[in-house]
Amino acid sequence: MIITTRKQFTIEEYHRLIELGFFTADERLELIRGDIITMSPKRTAHSVCNSLLFGELYVLLKDKAVVRGQEPILIPPNSEPEPDVVIAQKREDNYLSSHPFPSEILLLIEIADSTLIFDRDVKLPLYAEAGIMDFWIVNLRDKQLETYTQPYQLSKGKYNYRSQQIYLPDDIINIPHFTNISFVLKPFFM
């Protein structure tokens, strides 16, 4: 009988593999709970929504926060996901010394069509466990925005968000931490 063991990587090991050229430049990868995951190809609606949303948030928040699009965040010891949009606190070095940590993230957004189940079942608990206070899923399948706040531990090793709310395309939403800044959702749902 052959026994196999799955190798779980730390962030440092993952970065070392990148430095050594283990992956090609065009590979889209994420480190999730120690596993190196190939990211799903983006469909047209996902790309358009991402571009529009990033552009809108950048214009609304450019002097108030850092808006990052499809860039890594760090969740030690073994996760480096690449959310579609992150609004992070301003930092003097503009995150040159490291990607944002959960304590620096004001809002994290995933845009989901083919990735909806993965975003809900894998990423949502990861973000809740990391203490990311505000998480949104732009659900392109059902044409709705799902907002999640107040992370908590449901049971040992299981995390979720206490508050979950659905917004429809005609709704106007306030941006967490910037309650005086809002926008209409309709343009993001084709």
From TrEMBL:
Residues 12-175 form the Putative restriction endonuclease domain. It holds the Pfam family Uma2. SUPFAM superfamilies: Restriction endonuclease-like. It comes from the Bacteria. InterPro entries: Nuclease_put_TT1808 (IPR012296), Restrct_endonuc-II-like (IPR011335), Uma2 (IPR008538). PANTHER family: SLR1083 PROTEIN. This is Putative restriction endonuclease domain-containing protein. It comes from Crocosphaera chwakensis CCY0110. The lineage of its organism: Bacteria, Bacillati, Cyanobacteriota, Cyanophyceae, Oscillatoriophycideae.
